[in-house]
Amino acid sequence: MSNELHSPDVAYILQNVLGCKWTLHLLAEVRRGVNRPGQLVRSADGLTTKVLNERLVKLVRFGLLEKTSFPEVPPRVEYELTAFGRRFTSLLDEIDRLQAEL
Amino acid sequence: MSNELHSPDVAYILQNVLGCKWTLHLLAEVRRGVNRPGQLVRSADGLTTKVLNERLVKLVRFGLLEKTSFPEVPPRVEYELTAFGRRFTSLLDEIDRLQAEL
Questions:
Q1: How far does the CA of residue B89 sit from the closest CA of chain A (Å)?
Q2: Whole-angstrom Cα distance, residue A100 to residue A92?
Q3: What is the pLDDT of residue B35?
Q4: Is the pLDDT of residue A10 over 80?
Q5: Has the keyword Transcription been applied to this entry (chains A, B) (predicted)?
Q6: B88: Cβ–Cβ under 8 A, 6 or more apart, which residues?
């Protein structure tokens, strides 16, 4: 999957994602079509470019997001959920659903 | 739910459970009908009574397990999954399923 040679460890990734509000926020934004770094940095108060970039690199490394660079002037970059990312965000939905039922 | 006044925080509990191999092991054992502390302590090499008891107290506090004391001689204690515990272990199954698909 994407850049990974080994299968991602879902439990490890889930612990990491659930422990970081920015990571959860970014997954939700990309999922609803907010794909460009400039849009993403404006999507939440307090989110800096540095933190945004760290989280995006991590999400690509986890295999949840895929980065595409378009050869345009000015260059355009977009992030999208991978197939694994879509399955993973469905798992996050399940967690929300269970929480809502309690 | 059980002793909790507030709803448990599913994301917090999930992070905690995924981070502890004994906790995952004990949930799986209780789920398949290994309900008594004496059986549970013998269910895994390296699991001490102290660690077992700490994990059982935590799982009851999280609302995942329910403890029942039977007024017998000698006294008998059993642990069972709560309704929340059954939903929660289904979520753990989803994580395993996603992992297996990768």
A1: 11
A2: 12
A3: 96
A4: yes
A5: yes
A6: A98, B10, B13, B14, B17, B27, B64
